[in-house]
Amino acid sequence: MLDIQTFDNRRGGNVLYKALAHPLAAERLAALAARLAARGPVALFDPEGIAAPLLALHPGFSFAEAYVQDIGAIGTPHAGLAARPISDLPASPCAALLVAGFDAGRILARLRPLAPEPMELASLDEARLPAPLATNPRRALDPLNYATNFVFFRDQGGLSTRLVSANYWQGYGARSVRLWLRLYDQGGGVLAEWEEPLPAGPGGVVIDSRAVRARFALPPFTGQLFLHAIGAAGHDVVKYALDTFASDGGPSLSCTHDANAWPAERYAGLPAPDAGERVILWLQNSHASPIPAGAVSLDRMGAERPVALAEPLPGFATRAIDVAAVLPGLAWPAQIEVRAGRHVVRPRYEVVREGRTRIAHVNVERADLRPDPAIPGLSARLGRGFLLPFPVLARGRLRTEVQPTPMAHRQASLPLRIEIFDPAGRKIAERFLGNLPRDHRLALDLDTLLAPDALAEGGHGELLYDFQEGGEADGWLHALVRFTDRASGHQAETSFGAHIFNTLLTWRDEPQSYAGPPPGLSTRLFLKLGDGERRSFSVLIYPASLPFHKMSDTYLILHDSSGAALAEARLAIACSGSALVRPHESFRPADLAAAGEGGYVLIRDATCRLFGYHGLEDGRGGFSLDHMFGF
Prior knowledge:
This protein is mainly beta.
């Protein structure tokens, strides 16, 4: 387990982690470690207690002495050494001293008169971002300096990838934003490095693996793309949607959400292979230091018998893990837990079946959550409480399966009910699913719940807590939803978690808001357009924990690649209802053509919080689906 702190739901992201893990910082820290070691023994001064993450991410450092300034920390372990008071520095025999901190000019000035000759003094400022890449060059640990993320990026074997996003930072006051990008190959080597200027307005962003490969004359590749936004405002994470599609005319098509920029201890929601399937976990090292052999393992959810991966993984490298080779005999609907040890951001997995491949993502399994005894009593004030909404696509064509997925280390039971709604918000079916154990094998086929002619044009469902047989809840309810074309066998799957929706009353950080404190009672969702060969669509759901406005007041605003608004359509969705949105049905062909490749639809509603899923349709039975992102 890497001794690092990345993200928690109370304080948000740890910018120190990003500052130490950034690829450019990693190169500079490796050079700093080598230079200091060449001088002789190195001492460490750790005034802020960051030696542990520094050494975890950069094990090339080696220290002979460790110094602290807090009297209470004297004698405590630092970098494997008993910490000494910094007042003892004049007697140090070391050739160099590293101050473990950024913006350390004042500290260095205070130490120089105390340092014995010819001791060299250095700090982590040697690894700070180059000024042209820093949003705020004056403050090394400004979170906006590290608006970064990783992308599973591939152009190989007849499959290509296409990232789409928008310059949403412009809406928070950013005036000039650009992306610094670095593409890594499967072994962790650098294939290309470049910058992309973003539109001055809230325009669209498209990065296509085919164009990148042609631009840099690259061989086929599967690896990861590192994104760093410069000039960001408001958000320190790069959000995107990623399409994977067959560029050789094949039938494969899928999409996933952004990678979640913070490495976690565990991930869940990885399905075991169904009959005729091969499930591949794409393990991508998010750091420059190798992942040691045995540091990552897979376990059948709830079994507590993890199987370690035997081979190390180099820095920034990518490896395909066939889950059946690690956990032989395990089959759907069993679930797999990825014990990643904080080495990787949210991984992708690939399911290969009958010449088709689909990509989806696992989710962060929370280490900080415990069952909350207050949740069963929320219904008195918050009605249906936590809801996990998901689309039910046109049932004449598509079969829908729902699998609840444990998503916290201490989540031992899942007391659940499912409710199904038509587009007008009428509940047409429900079923108590039981108090499910952590290792359950339930994957509910909605064909067993709904009449054959129900929801012929689609609707939606919601998972929610039901304590009629006891059980505990922590509010981190998740599920995987799988869709199968009854004729072609094409599949898509998505996973997400529950929230409290559309109540004026709040409970802790719910209902969540895109900006500002709760309650989150507005919508700002990004819907990509098609790519010329495929058309986009969205399912918008209006979930409500308590009865809210009878109808939404939703606007679909078509933007071109510069961010200019070209056209607008209005939509009313019933409370507890849903709507299928296809841009090519809402806007004129001329407007869509003017929007261009980087155009998109902003889904805006100031009256309620909608939850959305989006995807592409290829006109040949292929489709993709995943949840949308907002900003």
